[in-house]
Amino acid sequence: MLVTKSDFDNQIMKILNENPEMITTFKAKYVTEGMWDYCISRNPQLFRECKDPTPKLCYRVLSMDGFFLEDIDPSKYSKEIYTRMCWIALETTPKAFPLIPEKYRTKEMKTYAYSMDPELLLSEKRLTPAMLEEIIDHRPDLIRYVANPTDDLIIRALEKEPKAIVYFTSISDRVRTWYEEHFPEYASMLFLG
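Request: output the structure for the sequence above.
Response:
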């Protein structure tokens, strides 16, 4: 009796359905992208065993956990495809930002990552003043996570969100004077005398 490719694939899928890890035991010529996709969706760690994953498989695993970006070689994909992978990783796991190679990082990615996960601001030591300004412009409430913000950065945040003043236990005389001039209605409630 002749076994068709379809019958053979069905037998493999039956095995993989019971134990997705078995995919690593089959020869590459017998395993399809769909089989890998199924197994990765059941056990994302299997992605690390996949030789030359297609963009679709990369997108799949990154949509589950952005930290898998670390396991993807950017030289195997076009810049456009790899950039899309970076965005999927960030949307899933903003803390994956440091895994993006420098040449693929954009200001938009950095701003997105920091605005989605403010804790990154606490751990990042290399943010330039311009980057901090961009982040604060995007999300002024993140000023509360900036260690030792300058008066100018505080004022920048307050221009966009006057109520962010509540995040500070103390402010400089310069910021206080500026705030009283620009938002007297709030200042009168906050600075009683």
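The mean pLDDT is 89.
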